[in-house]
Amino acid sequence: MRSTLSRTLSAMLVITILAGVAAYSAGDATDPVLSLSYITGTFVPQVVEEAQSAAEDAVADKLAQAFDPVVEEIDDRIGDAVLPEVLSDELVAAAQLALAEDGWYRTTVQNVRLTLSAGQRIRFRSGTEFTVVSGGAVLDGSRAAEFVQMTSGGGAYVGLSAAQNSTYLLADDRIAGLYTANGCDIIVRGYFQIIPAYKVKHTDTADLLAAMDLFRGTGNGYSLERQATRLEAIIMFLRLIGEEEAALAYTGSHPFTDVPYWADGVADKYIAYAYSKGYTNGVSATRSGASDPVTAEQYMTFVLRALGYSSETDFDWTDALSAAVGFGVLTAAERDSFLRRGFYRDGVAYVSWRALFAQMPQHGMILLDKLVADGVITAEQAEQAAAAKPSLIE
Questions:
Q1: Per residue, what are the HEC states of the chain?
Q2: What are the boundaries of each domain within the chain?
Q3: Domain spanning 106-197: CATH superfamily
């Protein structure tokens, strides 16, 4: 049985997440934004009662588990303080993410207006309609997700910028929605989750990979907090298959005009070698897309190829994360977390680490042992890696 404090905190967190993270309401046709007086005078009291009565349910349990480490600290601070002073933005964001990953959505049957801050994401369920009314956002999530642009009647897909004042509908239940780099206002009707800006989780994993020279920094440390590029994904792929040295020794050319120049043309060597081997064909006849962000599906496609699977016969690259779950490379929770939170260099490190311990069906061994056999890493490095237990996605 959880303590009275835990139940109270759970209720408070539910209230804060529902009422304080992003103000929203039914409103009306001319002004869908809810007034603060309604939130504090009507909405919050209702939620207080509901949250207190539901303090023993699964949502409250989930929140209590997420915040056990800080319960004592919060207890010392509660006193007569008002809710915003008790719960920091960081705690609220963590609680919000815990609820989202537990499958919890907010619901509205009428249009509501939401403000997303820079770096935030929003996820929808099938049938939800949404419109970007100011700022910018990109359709984001599972590459296989189906969107309908209701204003024009056409389709839309992940990776496209959402046109302002055009209404979209998510047409299936794959994890998908919007990502905003600089903030935006949107109108929503249906089911939604607001996902806080990403926080790095896997520095320890990056350290372990770096010790094997499989993961390197960018001049600003590991830069785990930013999205990885297609070029970085190709480089990691070449390391995982033990062909980085061959790439660096390659003297051939490539047809692309957008490869960034650094380290005396090393980037061109990676791209030229990968192009010559058929590992990448670019995004057009003259563009490699080297500086474009790489999606979780795109990077997982590289990883599955490194393990010996074929994107032509064994899996569909647009749903490579689900294929990875079927092959035992990721868990379903890990797949969903990448789709919900977005994919960063932090994720590249984590996925690469998981791949090292995945079975290679054609070789009868795990990738880590194959790298030892190929002389890419030493047996001692492999033993040290196998003995370590870096953090997993929570």
A1: CCCHHHHHHHHHHHHHHHHCCCCCCCCCCCCCCCCHHHHHHHHHHHHHHHHHHCCCCHHHHHHHHHHHHHHHHHHHHHCCCCHHHHCCHHHHHHHHHHHHHCCCCEEEEEEEEEEECCCCEEEECCCCEEEEEEECCEEEECCCCCEEECCCCEEECCCCECCCCCEEEECCCCCEEEECCCCEEEEEEEEEEEECCCCCCCHHHHHHHHHCCCCCCCCECECCCCCCEHHHHHHHHHHHCCCHHHHHHCCCCCCCCCCCCCCCCHHHHHHHHHHHCCCCCCCCCCCCCCCCECCHHHHHHHHHHHCCCCCCCCCCHHHHHHHHHHCCCCCHHHHHHHHHHCCCHHHHHHHHHHHHCCEECCCCEEHHHHHHHCCCCCHHHHHHHHHCCCCCCC
A2: 1-104, 106-197, 203-387
A3: Clp1, DNA binding domain (2.60.120.1030)
In order along its 394 residues, the chain shows pLDDT tens digits of 445 544 555 555 555 555 444 433 333 333 434 444 554 455 445 544 554 444 445 555 655 565 554 555 555 554 544 444 555 677 677 777 877 887 888 899 999 999 999 999 999 999 999 999 999 999 999 988 999 999 888 899 999 999 999 999 999 999 999 999 999 999 999 999 999 999 999 999 999 999 999 999 887 899 999 999 999 999 999 999 999 999 999 999 999 999 998 878 899 999 999 999 999 998 999 999 999 999 999 999 999 999 999 989 999 988 899 999 999 999 999 999 999 999 999 999 999 999 999 999 999 999 999 999 999 999 999 999 989 877 655 4
